[in-house]
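Interim report, section 4.2 (structural modelling).
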Amino acid sequence: MDTKQKVSFEENFTALERLVETLEKGGLALEEAIALYERGMRLAKECTDQLEAAELRVTQLRSGCYESEDSR
Amino acid sequence: MQIFSVGQVARYLNAFLTSDAILSDLWVAGEVSNVSQSPAGHVFLTLKDRDCQLRCVMFRRAGRLFQAANGDAVLAHGRIALYEATGALQLYVDVVQPEGVGLLHLQFEQMRAKLEAEGLFEIARKRRLPTFPQRIGVVTSPTGAVIRDIHNVVSRRFPLAELVVAPTPVQGDEAVMGIADAFAALAALGNIDVVIVARGGGSMEELQAFNDERVARAIFCCPIPVVSGVGHETDYTIADYVADVRAPTPSAAAELVVPDRFDLRYQVENKQRRLLAALSDLVGRRQSALRARTESLQHLGPDVGTMRLRVDDLSRRIASRLDAQLLVSGEKVNSRVRQLTSLSPLLTLSRGYAVVRQRDNGQVVCSVEAVARGDQLDVRVADGSFGVVVSAESK
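Predicted structure of the assembly:
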C-alpha cells in the first residue's frame, strides 16, 4: 500500500507534467483537449490528495533503537 | 634601601610581565593535568612536560574549541600574569587545541591526495540524486540529534518517503567498520534510492572515522547515490569528497535528498493553472476563428438587403416605364384606329365601289386579263357580297 502510493505519486506527477505539455503544444481537437484537461485535473487532484494524506502519516523507521515518532 | 609592600611587588611584576612581548602573547605546548571547573564555569588546569609545570586558567568567556581532558597533549595560547591574590604565576588561556591537530591534518592531506589520484573524487562519477526517493537509507547513530533532525526534515518536506536507518557508531574504534557494514547492508537490500551518511559536529578526532580509507571505499563502492552530511559547515572530511553530493550538515543532507511537498503542491497547482490556460486558449482560438468565419461569410456572401432594395427600385422603374409606354402605345393605337378607320375600304365600298375576287382563289380582280368567260367571281359591296359569272369581256 505504502509503496504503491508513492510510486503512483511520481507517476501521477510525471503523467500530469506530460499532459500539460501536450495540451500546451496545441493542435488538438476540442473534444480531445477537453478530455485531456479533465484527466489532468483528476491527476492534479490525486497528486494533491497524496501530498495531503502523507501529511498525516508518521514515517516508520526500521531501527528498533529509534523510537521518536513525528516530533514536529 | 627601599622596602616594598607585597601589593607593590605584585603590581610591579604584573606590569613587567604584561609589557613583555613574548609573555603577553605566547603558545605553550604541554600535557593537561589537574583539570577542574569552578561553579562560575572557569576551567583550571596544569600544563606540564617531563619535569616542569605551569598553572593555567581558562575563563568561561574564552573561546573553547576543545574540551581539554587530563592527559591530552595540547597547545594553549594566552598571556602570563601573576594572580595577585595567591602570588601564583599563571597562563591565562584564551585558545586551547589538541597538539595532534597538526599530525591529523598531515594524515588527512596525505589520504586525500592518495584517493584523489585513484579517482575516488572524480566529478564524472558523481551520480544524480533521484527526484522522488521512496526509500532513503541513513547511515548514522540511531540515537541523538542527527537522526532526529533528518527524520524531522523528511517528514516535514516529503513524508511520502520511508527512512531506512542503518545504525552504526559514528566515532570511536567501531565507527569505521560499523559505517562500512551499514553501507553494505543498505546496498544488499536492493531497494534503497539514496543514502545519507551523517554525523553531528565535533572535533577533528571525533570526525576521524569519516576520514578513514575504509569508509571512503565503502562510499565509493556503494551502488546507491550517497549524500554526506558530516559535522558543521566548515568541516570537510574524506567522506564528503567521495560522496556524490556533500551537504554542510545532516539536516541539509536531508533537505537535499527530498523535494519539498509545499513546493510540489505549488507545482501541481501551477500545472492545473497551465491546463486551464491551455484549454481556455484553445477554446478562445476556436471562438475567434468562428467569429472571423462568420464575419467573412457576411462580407463575402450576397448583400441581400441591398439587393432587395435594388430589385424594388428596378421594379418601380420598370413599372413606371411600362406605364409610360402603355400610355404612348395607347395613344398610337388610337390614332392608328382612326387612320385605319379613315382608310377602311368599307368606307369606299359604301360610296358604291365593289371589290371583285376570283371565287376559287380569292384573288382581287384588277384587270380584264385576270378573268375569262365563265369565271365565277365574288363581288363585295358595302353591306355584303354576291356571286356573278363572267359573261363577256371587253377591252
